Amino acid sequence: MPSPLETDERKGLPAISSSTSDKIKSIETFRVPPRWLMVRVETEKGIVGWGEATLEGHAEAVEGAYEDFRERFIGWEAANIEDIYQSAYRHRFYRGGEVLMSAIAGLDIALWDIKGKTLGVPVWQLLGGKVRDRVAVYGWIGGDRPSDVLEQAKVRKQQGFTAVKMNAVESLGWLASPDDLKATVERVRDVRSVGIDVGLDFHGRVHKTMAKQLARALEPYSPLFIEEPLLPGHTDELQKLYQQTTIPIALGERLFTRQMVRPYLETGSIDIIQPDISHSGGISETHRIATMAETYDVGVAPHCPLGPVAFAASMQIAICTPNFLICEMSWKMHYNLNSEYDLFSYIKNKEAFDVNNGFVEALTLPGLGIEIDEALVRKAASELNGFSWRNPVWRGPDGGIREW
């Protein structure tokens, strides 16, 4: 093994030695419908790991990061996950933010998959072992512009869910009429009448003036949580809102490092942290966020409106994390309905994601616990022909942009 001084430092490639010898041979990305970016990493010994680097609406930017990763990391020991993570993060993160963290996530997840397969154990066993036998999950109802929630809640209950999430509002101006909030309360009441729990995603659409009114109006109906009642960055404002409601407050899909999560834990302004494993550096950083949150008695509910690899990776975190609460599941989510592909499409062992009484059983196969249908991934990526999903742009009656 050459010393770092003997390597080509112009490419930033010096790597540490390893007790094993199975180097990264190839790194591929596949943009697949409905809106996911899959990552395939293969070692010189032929072990394949799958990751997911989905950053909704920005697939091309993440793919660009993989041009750098291929030059940087092909030839590195696949077992040195932390070394690869630190190299990608420390040298690149502050120049790329969320795009780089999503790219790191896909590579990191794939390397954990490889490590588990190499050792013949599920990833959760490598992270400290199992603390639960099954994982609580929730499904989505109502769509981007929430409607028809009562009937959809009934369907979700028949599918085996005991909890759902829906958008709280369609869109609101900075200062809206209190009458605009009445429909939200009615929808929550309807869903609760089915005998099912409901979390409300404010989605950053509600500014602080309306957020405190809406939280107060929802109090009698005991939502499971209110998610992202204010956009990240409003730490002091969120702390004040926290003091005005008894409803658990959740946040985290737009926070993708421990450093970004830290202020919310230190100010005691959230009850639930929601890292998205495809945004927050993969299994490595998400696991660290979860461990840090436990110190503050904050629960973990992974954000995961994405594909099967992200969901399986989130389950690995859930199975080994004492302060885990519940995980988002994108099966039959509104973003998937206009596509022939859904959460189960790209996996062969579809029974692995079966929902029973609100739970999915712990994954037991080596690595991530799922078998990816690689032929279908390649077929779907080729048929997509470069198309990329884009976030909607919403505007109010005055033409001004509103938060989607």
Automatic annotation (TrEMBL):
Q: Which UniProt keywords apply?
A: Lyase, Magnesium, Metal-binding
Q: Does the keyword Cell membrane apply?
A: no
Cross-referenced Gene3D superfamilies, in alphabetical order?
Enolase-like C-terminal domain, Enolase-like, N-terminal domain
Needed cofactors, names only, are: Mg(2+)
User: InterPro entries attached here?
Assistant: DgoD-like, Enolase-like_C_sf, Enolase-like_N, Enolase_C-like, Galactonate_deHydtase, Mandel_Rmase/mucon_lact_enz_CS, Mandelate_racemase_C, Mandelate_racemase_N_dom
Record SUPFAM superfamilies = Enolase C-terminal domain-like (SSF51604), Enolase N-terminal domain-like (SSF54826)
The record's section on SMART domains has: MR_MLE (SM00922)
**Region Disordered: start and end of each range?**
1-20
Task: Tell me yes or no: is DNA-binding among this UniProt entry's keywords.
Answer: no
- Domain Mandelate racemase/muconate lactonizing enzyme C-terminal, by residue range, is 146-248
- Which residues belong to the signal peptide in this entry? none
State what protein this is by name: Mandelate racemase/muconate lactonizing enzyme C-terminal domain-containing protein
What species is given as this protein's source? Myxozyma melibiosi
